[in-house]
Amino acid sequence: MDLGQRSETVRRANLSAIVRTLHEEGPQSRSDLVTRTGLTRSAIRVLVGELKAAGLATEDRAVRHGRPGRPSPEVSLVAGAAVAVAFSIGVDTLAAAVVGMGGTLLGLSRTDRPRGHKVASAVVDDLVSLLDHLPSGRPEPETVVAVGVAVAGLVRSRDGLVENAPNLGWTSVPLGALLAARLGWSIPVVVRNESDLGVLAEHRRGAAVGIDDVLYVHGEVGVGGGVLVDGRPMAGAAGYAGEIGHVPVDANGLLCRCGAIGCWETQIGAGAILARAGLPRDAGPEALDDVFAAAEAGDVVAQAAIETTGRTLGSGLGGLVNTFNPRMVVLGGIFGRLHPHAQQAIWEELERHTLPAPRAMVRVVPAKLGVDAPLLGAAEVALESVLADPATRFGHRARVAQLASA
Amino acid sequence: MDLGQRSETVRRANLSAIVRTLHEEGPQSRSDLVTRTGLTRSAIRVLVGELKAAGLATEDRAVRHGRPGRPSPEVSLVAGAAVAVAFSIGVDTLAAAVVGMGGTLLGLSRTDRPRGHKVASAVVDDLVSLLDHLPSGRPEPETVVAVGVAVAGLVRSRDGLVENAPNLGWTSVPLGALLAARLGWSIPVVVRNESDLGVLAEHRRGAAVGIDDVLYVHGEVGVGGGVLVDGRPMAGAAGYAGEIGHVPVDANGLLCRCGAIGCWETQIGAGAILARAGLPRDAGPEALDDVFAAAEAGDVVAQAAIETTGRTLGSGLGGLVNTFNPRMVVLGGIFGRLHPHAQQAIWEELERHTLPAPRAMVRVVPAKLGVDAPLLGAAEVALESVLADPATRFGHRARVAQLASA
DNA sequence: CAAGTTTTGTGTTCCTTCCGCTCAAACTAC
DNA sequence: GTAGTTTGAGCGGAAGGAACACAAAACTTG
Q1: What CATH code would you report for B208-368?
Q2: What pLDDT, in 10s, does the model give residues B29-70?
Q3: Chain A partners of B261 at a C-beta cutoff of 8 Å?
Q4: First to last CA, chain B
Q5: Domain A209-368 belongs to what topology?
Q6: pLDDT in tens, A293-318
Q7: What are the beta bridge partners of residue A150?
Q8: Do domains A7-77 and A209-368 have the same CATH topology?
C-alpha cells in the first residue's frame, strides 16, 4: 500500500530528485537544477546547502558560458562521500569495484575464474580478497552504503539466494548472507542476476542512456536477458525474470543443460557457435576467440557459423521485440562481439519475425560497457538507497566523529 | 524527470491513496483507512470530509462488529459521481459499459459483430449507439471522466491510433480521435489493446486480485498477451508490447497471417484447434463451440485436438514463465475454455519447459471475467485519472451548478 | 445498570517545507 | 559606465499533516 505522505516525504523526494539528477546527468548548475526539478531557487538553495553541509555535494565557481546574468555555481556530488562496493561472479572472471556517487569508478580489480566448480565460501573469500588488490586500497567501511553482487545465475532478489548457477555448480547458495557475514559490515548486500544488472548499467552509463524500454541480451555459455520496462528493471515475482535463454524454439531440438528440449540457448550459446565451427561445444573461451579470428581472416566455415548463429539470434530477438516492444536491443557478451560480423543476418531475421509497428521503432546495438556492465550495474543498485533517500547519510559523518571522540 | 514536490503534491497523493483504497478494496471504515494509509485520524477526517463535500464519497453509520470502542463510520465512494464509459471492439462482439467509482457496473450492452471488415467510422457509430441501449440510459456527460476502449489489435497508446487490427481489417486508424470527435465530449479517450486491459481487469476484479506479477494470455482467432509487472501493465515503448502470439516457435512451421513463419499463434489460435479437429481453419465461433461440445461428448478427434493444443500452449507458456517469472498465468478467451479440458496437458508441457525456481511459484488459472475482461479493464484505465488526482473533480459540481444558474 | 476500558471522532496548536517576493550581486551588451 | 538579465540571499506566508487533549460511543465487568 502507498503510505500516506507528509512534509518530510516531500523533502526526501526533493533531495532525492536533486541527488538523482546529479548522479545520472552529472554536475550542473543550481539553475539547471531549478529547471530540472521544477522547484524554486529558494528551495534548491536550502536543499543544496543541506547536501553540502552533509558532505555529499560541493559547489564550485560557475563556469562562464557567455550569457548575461549572474552565473550559477556548479553543484557536484562528492564521489567518495558515499560509495558502493560491487562484485561480479561471471563465467570466466571474478571482479570487484568501488564506485562513488555520480558513477565515479574509484577502483576495480579483476581475476580469472577457472571454469569448474568451487564451493561458495571459497568464491566469497576470493571476492573479498580482491578488495585488497584495488589500486585505491580497501574502501573505508564507513563510506560504504551497500554491496552489490552480479551473478551468472538465478537469484532470488529478496534475500540474495542463488537458486541455481549452472556455470558455478551452485544450487540454493545463500550468497547474500555468506558475503554479508564474511564482510562483517552492517549494510545491505544486494545480489542480482548479471543480465538484470547489465541492462541497468547500459541504461545509466552505456548504450541505452535516456532510453526507458530496453531489452539486453547477454550471451556466454548460457544466454540471459535483462529487461527495462518504463525505466525500471523487470524482476518478476522473485527476481527470476529474464531467463530468455530457456524459451523453447524448436520442439525437435537439442537437449539443454536445463533439462528441456529445444531451448534458444542451445542454438545461440557459445557452444552452438563452436559446434557450427566444427569444435567441441565445451571448448573454452579461447576457442571462441579463435573462431572470431578465423572469421576475420576469411575462414568460410567460421563465417558461416557466425552468420547462422546471427540468424537464429535474430529470429528469437524478433519474438522478443514483439513481446516487449523495446526501443533498443542491446547485445552483450559474445553477442556484442557477434554483432559487427552478423549485423545484417541478425536484422534480416529480426525483420522477418516482427510486426511492422514494433519493428519500426527498435534499434539493435552492441553493448557499450562490455564485460563491466554487470559489475557497474551492481554498483548502481547498491547506490540506490542513497539516491532514494540521501538524508539517511546526513547524520553519518557526525556519528562517526562522535564515535571517534568517545 | 521527477518533478519537485510540495504541499499540494502531498494532499493529492493522500487523497489519491484514500480513493484508490476504496476503489480497489471496497468500502471501509475511517479507522481502516488510517491503518491502510498510515495517516493520522486528523488527516483522514479532513480528507474524507473534502471528498464528501465534493460528492465523491459518503459516510454511513458504522456496522457493529462487536469490538469495544467507538464505532468508525464506513466510507464509500459514490459510484455515480464519476463514471467511465468503456467500449470494446472484439473479434465477435462490440460492447459498451458505464462503470462508476469502486468498479460498480452501472450499465452494459453488447451486440454481435459479424466477422468481416467494416470502416472505422461505421464501427464508431455502432459503439456510440450502444450507449442508447444501456439499461441505465445514456450517462450524464458531466459525470463521465474519460472513455476507455479495448481493441483486438496493435494500439499506439499515446494517441489511440490503431496501428493494425487484422480481425477488423484496420491499418493506421485514428480510433481515439474518431471516437472523441463523434462523442463530442471534451474528455480523454484512452485506447488500448484488449489483452493489456484484460490483465488489468483480472488484477483489479478477477482471478489475479492481490497478485502483482501476472501473465494474461488471451486466445481467439489471434493470440495476445497482457503482462503485469510489479502491479503495472507493461506497455512497451509505444504500447505494442505483449504480442506473444507472434513469437516464432517453429522455423519450419506455418505461414502466419502476420507474414512470418512459425508464429505461436498458428499452433494455438482458434484456427489450429479447428484444423486439428478436421475443420477449416476459418470456420466461425460456432464451429469451435461444436468442437468443445464434441470433446465433452467423448469424440476422440476433438479431444485430441484440444489436448494437442493444450500441449503446445503449455510449452509456449513455459518459455513465457521463464521470461516473466509471473506468480500467475491467467488464461482468457478460448484458452479459458480449453483449460478445464486440457489442464494436465498444459501443465505437463509447462513443467517440461520451465526452470524449477520460476515453475515452483506459478499457478495457471482460467480467467474469471471471461469476455468482459477487456471492457472492464477499459473502464479501469479510464477511471485512473480520478484515482490519481481526485481533486480534479472537486470544482465540478460547483461548476455545473454555476453553468445551470447562469 | 453503573463504572471502567477501549477505540475513535473533533478541534486546536505546532512543525515542516516550499513558494513568493524583494533586494543585492554578477555577468553581458552597447 | 549604464542598462538589462539572470541568479543568489533572506524573509514572511501559506499549505498540510502530526501531536495532543478532550468528548463520544461502543463493549466489559461486577
Answers
A1: 3.30.420.40
A2: 999 999 999 999 999 999 999 999 999 999 998 777 778 889
A3: 352-353
A4: 42
A5: Nucleotidyltransferase; domain 5 (3.30.420)
A6: 999 999 999 999 999 999 999 999 99
A7: A88, A192
A8: no
